[in-house]
Amino acid sequence: MTDANRSLVSSSGQGEPFSDGRRRLLLALAAAPLAGVLSLAPRRASAAASTSVIEGRNLWLYPGWESITDDATPACLKAVDLIKQTADKLAARGIHSVIVIAPLKARCCAENLPDGSAMSQAVAARYEAMRTHANSLGLAFVNAPSVISAVDASQEKYIRADYHWSGHSAEAVATRVAKRLTTSGPLKGTAGSGNRLGKWNEEIRYGDLAALLSPDRKKAIGKDHFVVRTAAAAQSLVDGGAPPVQVVGNSMVQPYLGFPQKLSNAIDRPVGLTWTFGDTGPWKTLLNYLESPDFKANPPQALVWQFNEGQMMNLPSAAGQWDAPSVMADDAFLARVAKALG
Questions:
Q1: How far is residue 202 CA from its own chain's centroid?
Q2: Which helix (H) or strand (E) covers residue 73, if one does?
């Protein structure tokens, strides 16, 4: 994907595989500004040649920059507060918000963590604390760990040697998001204009975490089987009109894994997509969309805003956690949201 910051008008295409973009995401997260985070990996974990990757059981890999022991719950709850302030501004413009936080890989696939490694009690309770706080504020918050836990046991929940959730998990979460959207009232647009889903297909390639290893360890870990949809025939926007739902997030919701296509299929309407790599962060990614000509021309009825749990403790002002253009004071972020909404 040559332009990670582009906005897709509908989810009718599958998009390109991760390739260079996938490596950029992981390298960006493991870059120098995040070097201090890498030391938070479990002390007894088997260290890979790259200290940003943790090798677990059964050749599974985990991102070492996402701590499973350090409690950051208070900071995460502050982020939920800021999400609520943003959602209120969107609501005042007539835009309903649904919040999705992709869980830590270790939360959903703990059985393959390295021997002697486990989430601390504080981290284990953190997602539920965020969900409870969001519910108390009236945010529409999808319980992604619960959804992913119900994925068929024969399917991977996260990709073995990759940072991302699997195509089956992406679709399961998208299905739950669709239910939250449709229970909020009828969606605008024309029934029958949703995305058609292709057949499941298996592609064999190295996962992005494996790509960070030394050549010998990469070879030992081996390639992954990416189970994804084949591209379906493109839909015409003339039939469905402007997308009533916009997805804003990172590579978890990129077309390759199928989240926007499944959401479009489930709500039977076109879905717009704006996604950026993880080093941009969710705050700037939202601004990228709200400050775009697409938003000004066709504001959506609903917005699905996706985050990563491992970055939830980082507000817009978290210098060193986002790329330089994405860092701003929290108040400045809200001011830009308000200005963009008009």
A1: 22
A2: helix 73-92
Q: Which residue has the higher pLDDT, 3 or 250?
A: 250
DSSP per-residue string spanning 40-70:
TS-TTSEE-SSTTEEE-GGG-EEETTS-SSS
The phi-psi region of residue 202 (left if phi > 0; otherwise alpha if psi is between -120 and 50; otherwise beta) is beta
278-311 residue pLDDT tens: 899 999 999 999 999 999 999 999 999 999 999 9
For 155-195, write each residue's pLDDT tens digit.
999 999 999 999 999 999 999 999 999 998 899 999 999 99
Burial zone of 230 (CB within 10 Å; 0-12 exposed, 13-18 middle, 19+ buried): exposed
> What does the alpha-carbon distance between residue 183 and residue 92 come to, in Å, rounded to a whole number?
19
Instruction: Name residue 53's beta-bridge partners.
Output: 63
- Worst-scoring range by mean pLDDT, 63-72, 77-86, 235-244, 275-284? 235-244
In a domain, 2, yes or no: no
Q: Is residue 224 part of a domain?
A: yes
Q: How many CA atoms lie within 13 A of 2 on its CB side?
A: 0
Residue closest to 231 by CA, chosen among 191, 200, 268, 276: 200
Vertex 148: Cα angle to 181 and 224 (nearest 5): 120
Indicate whether 1 belongs to any domain: no
Name the domain count of the chain. Answer: 1
Which pTM does this prediction carry?
0.86
d(CA 167, CA 169) in angstroms, rounded, equals 5
Task: Please check whether residue 251 lies inside any domain of the structure.
Answer: yes
The alpha carbon of residue 278 and the mean position of all alpha carbons in its chain are separated, in whole angstroms, by 9
Return d(Cα 317, Cα 311) in angstroms, integer.
13
**Containing domain of residue 279, as a range?**
7-341
Bridge-based pairing of strands 224-229 and 53-55 is unpaired
Sort residue 111 into left (φ over 0), alpha (ψ -120 to 50) or beta.
alpha
